[in-house]
Design a protein that fits this description.
60 residues, mainly beta, six-stranded mixed sheet, 6 strands, 0% helix, globular
């Protein structure tokens, strides 16, 4: 299973992410132990499987 690091503005905001869902202007994230985090006013701009990272950007 791939676990992703999630970055926003160049900063790591959540680690070991196995689930990400864009929902309007927010992104719901869940990690391997079931913790969830909602990042408001952002969107997914990159998913890089090779580097196991997801990049978010602020919504305008």
């Amino acid at each position: 299973m791939c676990e992703y690091k999630v970055f926003l503005d160049g900063n790591l905001v959540f680690d070991e992410v196995i689930y990400a869902k864009a929902d309007g202007d927010r992104v719901l994230l869940r990690n391997v132990i079931g913790e969830t985090k909602v990042v408001e006013n952002c969107k997914i701009v990159e998913v890089n499987v090779g580097e196991t990272k997801i990049v978010l950007a602020r919504s305008r």
